[in-house]
């Protein structure tokens, strides 16, 4: 579900591994392009592969679907879930492979299916409808929010591994999601505001200091919320930026295209949790407001 950079990358790689995949997207022009041309992946070795993957416009009746991977923007999760009530078989497992906090809760409140959560640090840069550049190898985590290791989790891990994605099953997927959110909160808005690709962010001393303070706030909020983080966000920040050094953050890509960003589900979510837990988050608050301002200005410049 979702034919953006991550959706196309995972969809094409799973198809190449021999799995039956259908991409579902709400934009009919993107669906037609994929139906006509397939998906083009420029791999890390610069070689381009074209993969034929069936595509459909959503929402649509979904029958015989074993696993539905949700890769839509976080702010679209609630509307997407509501639109699939009655269209998705109860036996279908849903895997949220999205950025930010709140996706699992939004899906659970509207759909009664078995639900898994995931997080990936695979670098993917969209270069047009149905085309994606794989800018860096990463690590993908999946897990049951109830901390249960299910058979379907192992089956998905096996499929992802066969598709070339290093995958682990986590018994603390909530901690994984929080760690990734804290890291993203110190990558995406800073990349967006400076217009720097990931590699340049890691080399900028001023950005490093601001990123550290942003993550400090997020870590304090996680402690107050009694969330046990998986890994050290500050160490992960550097590793992700280095492994995806040629990548532009998804938020910067959205601003450049005059689109809405996921700032509310990243820094904005940390601010909201902070308010609830009485933890001050001034850096995350300012970053949220600055990116929201950029959203309005980029739309005005683009005439939309």
What order do the helices and strands come in, and which of them pair?
Blueprint: H1 5-16, E1 23-25, H2 28-37, E2 39-42, E3 48-51, E4 55-57, E5 67-70, H3 77-83, E6 93-97, H4 103-110, E7 115-120, E8 123-128, E9 131-136, E10 140-143, H5 151-162, E11 167-169, H6 173-185, H7 188-194, H8 198-202, H9 205-224, H10 233-243, H11 250-256, H12 267-277, H13 282-302
Parallel strand pairs: 1-4, 2-9, 5-6, 6-7, 10-11
Antiparallel strand pairs: 2-3, 7-10, 8-9
Describe the structure.
With 304 residues, the chain is of the alpha/beta class. The chain folds into 2 domains: 5-171, NAD(P)-binding Rossmann-like Domain (Rossmann fold, 3-Layer(aba) Sandwich); 177-299, N-(1-d-carboxylethyl)-l-norvaline Dehydrogenase, domain 2, CATH 1.10.1040.10. 47% of the residues lie in helices and 16% in strands. Strands 5-6-7-10-11 form a 5-stranded mixed beta sheet, sandwiched between helices. The chain starts with a helix and ends with a helix. 47% of the residues are buried.
Report a brief summary of the structure:
Helix content is 47%, strand content 16%.
β-sheet strand percentage: 15-25%
Overall, the morphology is globular
- Annotation field: number of helices: 13
CATH-defined superfamily of the largest domain: NAD(P)-binding Rossmann-like Domain
What fold name stands as the CATH topology of the largest domain? Rossmann fold
């Amino acid at each position: 579900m979702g034919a953006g950079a991550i959706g196309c990358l995972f969809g094409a790689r799973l198809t190449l591994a021999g799995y039956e995949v259908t991409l579902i997207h709400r934009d009919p022009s993107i669906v037609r392009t994929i139906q006509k041309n397939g998906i083009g992946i420029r791999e890390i070795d610069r070689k381009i592969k074209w993969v034929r993957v069936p595509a459909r416009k959503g929402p649509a009746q979904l029958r015989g679907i074993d696993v539905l991977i949700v890769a839509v923007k976080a702010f679209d999760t609630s509307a997407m879930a509501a639109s699939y009530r009655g269209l998705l078989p109860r036996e279908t497992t849903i895997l949220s492979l999205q950025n930010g906090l709140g996706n699992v809760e939004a899906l659970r409140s509207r759909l009664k299916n078995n639900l898994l959560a995931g997080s990936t640090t695979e670098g993917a840069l969209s270069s047009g409808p149905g085309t994606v550049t794989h800018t860096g190898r990463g690590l993908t985590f999946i897990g049951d929010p109830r901390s249960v290791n299910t058979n379907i989790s192992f089956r998905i891990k096996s499929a992802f591994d066969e598709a070339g994605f290093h995958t682990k099953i986590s018994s603390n997927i909530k901690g994984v999601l929080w760690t990734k959110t804290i890291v993203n909160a110190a990558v995406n808005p800073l990349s967006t505001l400076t217009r720097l690709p990931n590699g340049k962010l890691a080399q900028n001393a001023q950005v490093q200091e601001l990123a550290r303070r942003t993550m400090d706030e997020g870590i304090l909020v996680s402690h107050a919320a009694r969330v046990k983080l998986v890994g050290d966000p500050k160490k992960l920040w550097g590793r992700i930026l280095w492994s995806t050094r040629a990548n532009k953050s998804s938020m910067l890509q959205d601003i450049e295209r005059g689109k809405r960003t996921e700032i509310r589900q990243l820094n904005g979510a940390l601010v909201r949790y902070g308010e609830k837990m009485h933890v001050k988050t001034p850096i995350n608050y300012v970053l949220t407001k600055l990116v929201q301002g950029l959203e309005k200005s980029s739309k005005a410049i683009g005439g939309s």
